[in-house]
Write a structure and sequence with these properties.
The chain is mainly α. About 55% of the residues lie in helices and about 5% in strands. α5 packs antiparallel against α6, α6 runs antiparallel to α8 and α6 crosses α10. The longest helix is centred in the N-terminal third of the chain and has 20 residues.
Length: about 300
């Protein structure tokens, strides 16, 4: 029953391998719970949903993890009911738990520069230095996910337009943009690799992985995590640096500089605007400063205060 559902998600819904794995883990965990309760997953009881939430809460899981498991089970039983595999969806009216507000970690402008300087000053060969700088600039300039950066090929990069077409979640493609600094470091990196078919026209050879490891093969997602961690250590940066921290930094700085949240949503490849809205927290401090500078009653040293 679970295998049939996972096959449906893979072939019809075209979900990413990571999302499929999450569904698989959630559902087989739920099946184990049902067996422990002496129940058949195909014949749940009406209170099964609420009982399972209590079990997960008692296990010490955070609301965000519990909500994901609820969603997995709800979608699974929607499929089961529609295909006459189960008479009822016990999660149909189960409410998700209230999420904790967790603000994303991001880098200050000075820390972005510190990472760049660290990459420049590392003791490494010419290829490694150029690759590391290009990778940092690409991640910060585009806000790409690590999977999007690792999976990028040269035919998807248009240097003359300063853009790239990346494949995101659900195999959906979107255009991301290379700022001046990223464009310069990418050109320098590609020239060192002899990736240009026509340098004057900025035309790249096709079918080549953009970011390589030391063996000349496509770098893995794990490899990118390792590189960022190594560069941060070399630059004595205390924060835990990851590709996702760069993605958060991109979004945070865009909104801080006044970008419309809907454009940021598009650039990040978010399905829902609510996912992007977490970045608006950075605007509060900025707005407070604007208020203090511009509003007659906002200035702390206002001479009319209290009159």
């Amino acid at each position: 029953m679970i295998k049939r559902f996972l096959g449906y998600l893979k072939s019809i819904k075209n979900l990413s391998p990571a999302t499929l794995k999450a569904y698989e883990n959630d559902l087989y965990q739920f099946e184990e719970y049902m067996k422990g309760e002496g129940l058949d997953i195909a014949r749940p009881e009406k209170n099964t949903g609420r009982s399972y939430i209590s079990f997960l809460r008692d296990s010490g899981l955070k609301p965000v993890s519990i909500n994901r498991k609820i969603t997995s089970a709800r979608v699974f039983y929607d499929f089961a009911v529609q295909n006459s595999l189960s008479p009822v969806n016990p999660f149909e009216r189960v409410r998700s738990m209230k999420k904790e507000t967790i603000l994303p970690e991001y880098l200050q402008y000075s820390e972005i520069n510190q990472m760049h300087l660290s990459a420049e000053n590392m003791k490494s060969d010419d290829f490694t230095k150029k690759r590391n700088i290009a990778l940092l600039d690409f991640l910060y300039s585009t806000g790409c996910r690590v999977s999007e950066a690792a999976g990028l090929d040269t035919q998807k990069v248009d240097l003359s337009m300063g853009s790239a077409r990346v494949r995101g979640k659900g195999s959906k493609e979107r255009i991301v943009y290379l700022g001046g600094k990223a464009l310069a470091s990418m050109k320098d990196y590609f020239a060192g690799l002899d990736y240009f078919e026509d340098f004057k026209k900025l035309k790249l050879k096709k079918g080549l992985p953009v970011f390589l490891n030391r063996s000349g093969k496509r770098i893995s997602e794990r490899g990118i995590f390792y590189l960022l961690d190594k560069i941060a250590d070399n630059g004595f940066i205390q924060k835990k640096i990851s590709p996702h921290v760069y993605r958060h930094s991109f979004a945070t700085h865009m909104i801080t500089e006044g970008a419309d949240i809907r454009y940021v949503q598009e650039m990040l490849g978010h399905e829902s605007l609510s996912t992007t809205q977490v970045y608006t927290h950075v605007g509060i401090g900025r707005l407070k400063n604007v208020y203090r500078e511009a509003h007659p009653h906002g200035k702390r040293d206002n001479k009319n205060e209290g009159k």
